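WP5 quarterly update. Target: Imelysin-like domain-containing protein. Source organism: Tamilnaduibacter salinus. Length: 348 aa.
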Amino acid sequence: MPRSRGLVTALMAFTLMLSLPALAQNDAGQTARTQWHDSIGSGYQRLADHSAVLSSTLSRLCPMPNRQEDGVARMKMAWRDAFLAWQQVRFVDFGPIEQNSRAWQIQFWPDRKNLVGRKVDAWLEQADKVSASAIADAGVAIQGLPAIEYLLFDKRFRTGNATGWTQRCALLTAIGAHLEKVTRRLAEDWQAYGNFYRSRDDFTATTVEAAMNAVEHLRSRRLGAAMGLRGNTSTNAYLGDAWRSGESLAAQQASVAGLSNHFLPGLKPLLTAPDQKALFDDLTHQANETLSEYQSLGRPLKALLDTEAGYRQLQGVYIEVSQLEPLFIGQLASTLDIRRGFNSSDGD
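Structure tokens (predicted):
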């Protein structure tokens, strides 16, 4: 009997030793998800706050007589703040953002057929029917930041013969109110999502995959396509995220900053072995290098594409993004044993 009890004790100890790595990994995953949830939540709240400021700015300044001067400039700045806040959390492609096509409601892109412009023009012809509830029932092309960008920045509204300000003002105010509601509910729903998200081990891989997809999407579609490096051979600034406002590159930079701020810190608990720590350092370093390259550009996408010197600057950014991509999709995926599924952000 004593020998039998000793054997049982030894077997139990051996079983416990085998289970420790898995338990440690589960603990690390939960720590990572807790950090991700908190950080993404702060990003969503920032988006909601900036969207609320945009909505109030539109409704307050739009009817003012000085709208053609300081008022328009302030509305554009409020739009830019909300737009870049969205770019920082744009990599999150799961959870509450999937409900009711919220990502598309916030930013309808790509828009190769200028559906935003055509929808806005159609709504301007029936401005007397415009309201936030009417916009909520309309298609995604009229509901978000690109539609507001069109109304504030498009060249057709820079002339005195443009469609009347009253119609534009009504539409701007309605879209702003809808956007405020969508982003506020997104932030609230993400908080309510917390217990479920933190408790599910599979959301670790889901979150990492979201970051991988975002980096691939950035290189291939958001930058590469405009540079003529995605099957097309000619440059085209109109393939950028925000060509009307000239904020396409700022949007890309904000997305890299979002990965640095809202993804990488939560990744650290998963990479604790010496070689894994080296990978984390490489990811952090390359993200910083990419941000520095974006910050050095100093001009909008179209201006850079129009000259050889400008294109060379963009090539420098493209190289940095291209070096970031294999760290995510190759080394990180292999280290965490993540097999990527279908990338839903690839749809045209």
